Amino acid sequence: MPKVDRNVQIKVMDEKDRSILIDSSLQTRQFQNLLIININAIYRINKENPKRKNDYNLLLNPNIVRAIVAGQSGGKERNRMLYLLEQYGDLPLFVAMLEAAKGLLPKNIYYTVKKLATAYKSAFSKQRSGQQTGFPRTKKLRDSLDQMDLPVDSERFSFKQEGSLGINLGGGMHYFSINTETLTKFVGDLANIKSLEILCKHGDVYFSFRYKKEITLPDTADLPPKSAGMDLGVNNIASIFIDDPSTPSIVFKSDRMIEANSIFNKRLSSLRSQNDLAKAQAEKEKNELVSSLDKAEASDAKEAVYYSEETLRYLSPEYDAKISEYKKISGEISRLFAKRGHWFKDNLKKLARRLLEILQENEVTTLYTSRNLGKIIPNMGKVNNQKFVSLPIMKFLDYIKLNAAEYGIELVDDLDEAYTSR
Question: What's the CA angle centered on 87, arms 84 and 90, to 5 degrees?
């Protein structure tokens, strides 16, 4: 029987386990932030120098950065690696970046740089299309990299201890509680697991397992070819025409999803208003507190005194309460996004399977649709554009593609949108 790649995520509930995994992800995030700062610094240093204005690209090469941190020769990239070290190796920020990367595994360094390079590539694409100007902004890059992924090599995790997952995070083996009985319901034999990633998103931590699943393909050899065309849209998420005079068209309406998305947006708008107010109040309290401290400062020093957030929170219970409220609401916003994502993922997966079941019942062998919907979005009108972008319609198509083979259906998704119903 053929095998296909599948993925299952298990949320980490134990607080001690979460703390260890978040600390590991924060170390990677620190390295990532210093990498962004160094890229921006090298760009600013050389932006008037035609010969060196693209030197920042060397820090977006995962092979070069991994070789420098791991003390490797650099292979084919050796000359460019040595040039980078010679020109910028003595910069304090460059030294700090290398120091932050010392405890990381080479694979995690490679993965982090590769992911950052993709974010920069996307930013430059927007720049070329006129959506943004200037060098990519640090905050926008960090926002696009909000989810932190830590890949774990297959030889660095095991299930040798019953009821636990052992992971080598670089400083020795750590054991985390996990319900292997629940996991085997998805993956079958634990030996089917091929890779592991630790995901930190929206304040939660997940183990993401990629495994091989055996599927039984239906026997379609005796079926005559029959095709169907599918249009994806806003009010009707899928409209299907089957090339058979006796079979009526099938429509899956988006009413429930639009309603759920509307509820989410209203709740999000309310929380963001509260969050902005809490932030403004915290900033006002902070400024008043710092001002009073400066006036009370007996020193004649010309330089302003810096007060850390911890110090200010300790000195002022009012500021501590306001900043706590701000962070509490920020956490609620993050959890709301996570809840929305889980809801859509669950419902779109069920909808995709139901659609494939109907096509199989009607002996459809090929489904035609279009993935090139990005080209038509600008012409749909403001309201429809907003709905289309808000609803994860492309995810729905991905779930259909993922499961089509199990139902004996071939998916062709590279057609022009104008011809999917013909």
Answer: 100
- How far, in Å, CA of 228 to CA of 369, rounded? 9
Is pLDDT above 90 for 79? yes
- pTM, full prediction: 0.68
Query: What DSSP element (H or E) covers 405?
Result: none
| Contact criterion met (CB below 8 Å) for 165 and 184 | no
CA distance 110 to 107: 5
- When pLDDT is averaged across residues 106-133 and rounded to a whole number, the result is 77
Q: Are 406 and 217 in contact (CB under 8 A)?
A: yes
Confidence class for position 162, pLDDT limits 50, 70, 90: confident
Q: Where do runs of H (alpha helix) occur along 129-228?
A: 138-144, 180-187
pLDDT digits (tens, 9 = 90+) for 39-51: 888 888 888 888 8
* Tokens encoding 112: 């982090």
- Distance, C-alpha 358 to centroid of its chain: 32
245-253: Cβ within 8 A, 24+ apart: 247/362, 250/355, 250/358, 252/351, 252/355
β strands within 234-350, DSSP E: 236-242, 250-253
Q: How many CB atoms lie within 10 A of CB 143?
A: 10
